Amino acid sequence: MTDWEACHSRVHPASNNSPWPHPPTIPVWGKPDRIFDDSNGFDIDHAMAGSDESELDQDPDPNASVTEADYGEAHRQEAKDAIRVAGIDAVAFYAPIHNFGHPRWGIYLNERVFYGACAEAKALLDVAAWEDVVADMLLSIDRHELFHAAVELFSLVLEDFADLGAVQQSSMLRGTIKERITDLIAELHQAVQDFGCDPSNVAQAADRFKVAKLKVEAYSYYLGDQKARLEAALQEMDAKLRHRIDELVENKAEVDTAGACRDAPPLDTENSSDEVSHPGIFPLRHACPFRIYFTNEYLKTYPSRDCVEEGIATALEFHCKFKSPGFRRTLVAMLRNAPPAYSTWRSYICSDDLRTGVQSLAQTIVLGTYKEPFEVACAEAVLAGAAGHAKGDDPRRLWFPGLSSAWLDRHGPVPRWIYRPDSIRPRRFARAILANVRLRDLLSGLERRYNARIESGGKHSAIHFPNGKKVPYPTRRNVPPYLIRDIAQALGVTKREILSNCLAVNV
Of these four, 215, 218, 246, 501, which has the most CB atoms within 10 Å of its CB? Predict the structure, then answer.
C-alpha cells in the first residue's frame, strides 16, 4: 500500500473505493467513465526507454498498430488546440485519491494529445531524434504531475496526524519530530531567559513565551513516549518564568505588566491552553485539508495566474535533464499560448524561489484548513519539526514531500495510466501486466510464500532462497519483467506461478 493509500485509508476509511463527490471533468478529456474504460496501466521507465517488453509483461494488443511519428503528426494540431485550452492538463492530469478512489487514482496520460505534442516539439526542434523527444516529453510531463501528487500527500499527512493523533503512525514524521523536542525546549528556555530583558517590551516577551509553550504543548499531544518529558519541561519553565517575574517586581520594572503575569493561574498541563480551548484531548479538529484547499483555493484560482500549484508544477518541468538539445526552449514555445496558470513558472525557476513558493503553498493549505490560532500553532509546530532543519535553516520551515520523482515513487509509486481511445495506435503503451506493481510487494510475497530472505544494500541487494540460490534485484520502484524470469529459474517454477502466488496476478 502506498503512503497515499495508507493515509487515505486511516482518515477516510468509509470512502476508500468511492470517489468524492465525483471525478471532475477535465477540459478536452471527456467524461471520467470513458477515461476509465479506455485506460490501462503502464511502466514509466520502460515507456521512456522505448524498449519492447517481454511476452510476460504485455497482454497481446488486439488492435492494429501505427508508427508513433505518423500517429503524432495526425494529432499535432489537436494537441496544440488542447494545450491552448487546458495547458499541460490536456496532455496529462493527476487524479487525486480523494476524487477518484483507490482503484483509479494516479497520473493519466492522453495518448493522442501526448504524441501530438511530441510531433509539435520535434518540428520546433527540427533535428532531434524521435525517441529522445518522446522520452523528454514523458519526463517533463511526469515531473509536472508528480508535484500535484506531492500536494495531495502533504494534505493527507496533515490530516493524518490531526485526526486521532495519527502522526504516531507515520514513519515519515515520527523520527524527525522527536529530534525537534530538544530544540523546542531550548526555545522555551531562551524565551524565559529573555523575559523582561527589555523593560519597555515585557508584553512582547510574554507573547514569545506563550508561542513557544503552545509549540511544546502541540508535541505533547502527539508523542506519547515523550509526553512526560515535555510536561516536565513546561512545569520547569513555568516555575522559572514566575521566578523571573519576581525578579522584575523586585526591580520595579514594569510592575503592572509583570504582576498581571504573576497573578495568572498555575499551568495545567493536562488541559493546557492559555486562552484557547480545544475539543476533547485532540488539539486539531477533524477536517479534510485537501478537499478544503481543492475547493476553496485551486478551483477558484485555476486557470488564472493566481494558481500557485500549476505555476510550481510547470517550473519543475524545467528542472529535468533532457536528452534533446533545446528542449527547454521548445517547452517555453509550446506553453506560450497556454492558460495563464502555466505562465508563472518563471517565478519559481530558481531554487530559492521554488522553496519559497512551496512553503507559501503549504501555509495556504494549513491556514485554509484551521482557523483557530491554537490549531494553526499545533499544525505548524509538528510540520516544522518534521522538516528536520539543517543548520542555518529557517526553523519555521514546514515539512513538505520531496519534489524528486525518486522520492515520491519511493513512497508510492504513483500509478500511471494511459488513456487510449483509438483502435489504431502505437505499441509503446501496450497493456503491461506488471505496470504499477511495486517491487516491495513482490519481495514481501517471496518472503511469505517461499521463505526468501531479502538482503537490502544498494548495489548488493539480493533475494536468498532456502535452496541456496541467490537472485540480485534492482533498486527501482516497479517490478522489471526479467526479475520474474530470474526468480522462476532459481526456484524451478513457472513465471506464472510466481505472479499468482506472490502478486495475485493471473495470466
Answer: 218
